[in-house]
Amino acid sequence: MTGSAVAAGYALLGAAQIAELGAMIPRSGGQYVFSRYALGEYAGFLVGWSDWISTCGTTAAVSIVAAEFAAVLSPRLEERRPALAIAVAVAFALIQWRGVRWGSVVQNATSAIKAIAFMALAAGAFLLGSQTGNTNAGGPSLPTGLALLTALVLSLQAVIYTYDGWTGAVYFSEEVDDPGRNVPRALFGGVVSITAIYLLMNLSLLYVLPVQAIAGQPFAAGALAEAAFGRYGSTIFTIVVILSMLSAINAYHLMASRVLFAMSRDGLFSKGAASVNAGGT
After folding, report:
1. Is 276 part of a structural domain of the chain?
2. Which CATH number is 234's domain given?
3. pLDDT tens digits, one per residue of 256-276
4. d(CA 101, CA 113)
């Protein structure tokens, strides 16, 4: 819980800075735009291409994870995981190609479904799970000194990554009505929403599972689902993960295309990539 609160504070501080930049320089393209404006083309080149390549790589990785979890739901997909991963990535790319409105509708829908799924999981834990989380008997002893600091830093890396993506609004700054008002609202609203959902999940974990059952658990939410929903828990957890992955894939497509567009418009890639189709893509 402490790590979650610290990461939330970190994200809010970052949101305050990015919101100021997004309102001052309302151009689509994410951090590339700010880097090029402040430090010149060389810095912009490095930041822009690093951002674009890493986002494309993450899109591929998340598509693979989604396919792997789909194979858990349906073993018949086990041999088709690579093809399924490619199909998912391409399907969302085609949605983006249709136009901004299509991409926006899909993003809003998948994000809402994901948020509802996590809240339902947490609510189910409180309603159906037994209160055993306050049982500390036999729990692991806490490290001290350097070992505690190292554990805290490592855990914060994972927690901060959970909050990652809160900068998404600045990738679309020039496409937003009244960016000086709405970009900051989107940034802070996103961080606050993620914080609420994440802390709720942590509270439900601590309510249902003792600390010793959470420690070392690769999928703590999976253990939570099994404790709350019994034999259906694993299926419910798998569905929640897949929904999360699909929403992320769509968002990565939205963000990566804006970075490439911004760099191309500034002459750091082919000018053809700066063209916009009838749908606004």
Report:
1. no
2. 1.20.1740.10
3. 999 999 999 999 998 888 888
4. 18
